[in-house]
Structures are given as C-alpha cells and as structure tokens.
Amino acid sequence: MESYAGPGPSASTDGLSAHLLCPDCRHRIGADLVCTACTRKFSRQGSTIVLLPSRLDASKTHEEETWRVLPHEGENQPAWKAFLHKHNEVFYFTETILPHLDLKGNVLEIASGSCWASALLKQRFPVVQMVASDVSPTALKKGESLVQLLGSSVDAYVACDLENLPFEDEYFDFVFGSAALHHLGALDRGVSEVSRVLKRGGRFLGILEPASGPFFGSIWESKVGLAGQRAHEHGIHEAMYTANQWRDAFERSGFSAVEVVREWDWRYKLTHWLPPMYFRALEFVPKRWIGNVLPCSVNIRATK
Ligand SMILES: [Zn+2]
Questions:
Q1: CA–CA distances in Å: residue 118 to residues 59, 68, 178
Q2: What value does the mean pLDDT take over residues 9-13?
Q3: How many Å lie between the centroid of ligand 1 and the Cα of residue 28?
Q4: Residue 69: which residues within 8 A CB-CB, separation 6 or more?
C-alpha cells in the first residue's frame, strides 16, 4: 500500500497541545502535560496522550479491560485482523459516507477503537488535523498500528472520557463517531460534550448507532441479545434508543438541523447470516415502524 505524502506540511499536534483541558478541573494543560491549576501530571503511552479523569465509571475501565482481550482486535491480535474484523463497516463507510464528506480544519473521532475511520478520513482529507480518541489506550495503540498498515497517519491519539472531553470549547470543525454513543451511560452528557467542543456551525456525524422501540430494545439489552451478552460479560454499556430519542438528545443539546436517517441496507451485512435476511424483511413493513418499533441502524447528522 502506498503511504500518503501530502501536498503541504502535515498538521501537527503542537496545534492541539495548546487546546487541551484537564479532565479533573477543566483548566488548561501546559505543554509539559501538567495541569496549570491542579498540577496533575499527565503522560503519554507511545503516541497516545492519556487524559483520563482520575475517577472513571467502572463501565469505562471495563472498556479498557475488554479491549485487551477482544478476539479479533485485542492487544495481541495483528492490525490486519483488527481491520478485517471491521470489513462490513469499512465497506459501508467508504461506499456511502466518505464520498459525501468535505472536511477541513480540526476533526475529532470519538470512540475510535482501532481507528480505521480516522485512518480513512485522514487519507481522504490530508489537510485536516485528525484527532482519534477513545477511553481505552489499548484500543488506540492497536489503532496506531492499523493506521500505519493502511499507509495513513493520524495527527493525535487521545485517551479520554467522552462524557468529559479534554478539549477546549469550539475547537473542532467536525466530530465523527461510528457505533460510538450507544456505549455511553449518560447519552445527554456525551452529546453535550460533543456540542461544546464543536465550533458554531460545526457538524457531527454518527453512523451505525442502533435504534429500536422498547420491546426489541429490552431484548437487545438483556442477556438474550448479542449486545446484552457483551454488556453483561464485560460490564460495559450497550444502550438502545428509538430514532426519535436519538433526535431529541441532539436537539436538547442545542444542535439544529438534526437528521436521523434510518438505515437497513442488507448489502452491507452480507457476511453475516441473520442481519441480511432481517434487513431484507424490513423492506416489507411500514417505514414508520423501523427504528421506533423494529431495530435498525441510524446515522445522525447534526449542526451546532
Ligand atoms: Zn487540573
């Protein structure tokens, strides 16, 4: 694979380091990674700047423990395997999302995991300053090797809590997340943090979030559902909201032009056996049921 050689100097993390906030006291962090107010000292793990709050919910520390042992993407798995594991998402993203984006400025990916989307975004828009973030430093370490594998580059990796983002107000032009927000314990807090770090007129795009009415949602969240099994086994959050609840959460946080697009294209699920059959069947039910009664994916577009 060819590595990227951009037309101009690539964005540098020096730009970002002047805009970091302490997750404990919300004051500025100095260039030496020491908080200018509470003097807490932060560190790097490889390329990742670790800006996690001193106190973190158990579900979030469990995310880190889960990332260490994930069967395809865990600490000891090769980057190519982590990338292949996401082939449905990558296929969907590169075919239906990426061609319609036009990005510049500062871009943040939330809950980046193995950073495949950050890698592809930076490859397509080399002029942006691409910041990948996740609560798990282990995930970002995997991300770093995956980004290299794809011949891409990411400008900064930041381990942080999505409900307490360590970036100053109105720093980002675009925030992206793939299947990110449904892992939060407090959706509103995460959405309002995304809103806070976006510039006025900045945009959020979240893809592949689950949506369903309460009946199927409770099955999803229970031990019977696949996500529920994961949640119970690892002690992490796997929440489900209706398409309308997704919209309301963004409108409550002051976003305008909130668009929740329900998605049930079976072609991007082809390598599973049940989802393509289910998604095909959805073509025969009243559209208003989808996402508010029956499960589907939603993409959320919102402007601050
Ligand atoms: Zn501080």
A1: 24, 20, 10
A2: 45
A3: 7
A4: 75
Distance 21 CA to ligand 1 centre (A): 8
Q: What are phi and psi of 291, to 5 degrees?
A: 90, -20
Residues near ion ligand 1 (CB < 5 Å) are 22, 24-25, 35, 37-38
As a whole number of angstroms, the distance between CA 249 and CA 252 comes to: 5
User: What is d(CA 249, CA 127) in angstroms, rounded to the nearest whole number?
Assistant: 31
- Residue 253 CA to ligand 1 center (angstroms) comes to 25
What's the mean per-residue pLDDT of the chain?
Answer: 88
Number of alpha carbons in the 13 Å side-chain half-sphere of residue 68: 5
**pLDDT digit string, tens, across residues 24-62:** 999 999 989 999 999 999 999 999 999 999 998 888 888
**Dist. CA 192 → ligand 1 center (Å):** 21
- CATH number for the 43-303 domain, one of 3.40.50.150, 3.40.710.10, 3.60.10.10, 1.10.10.10? 3.40.50.150
**Would you call 212 helix, strand, or coil by DSSP?**
coil
For the chain, what are the domain ranges? Answer: 43-303
Position 165: which residue type? Answer: L
Å from CA of 184 to ligand 1 middle: 24
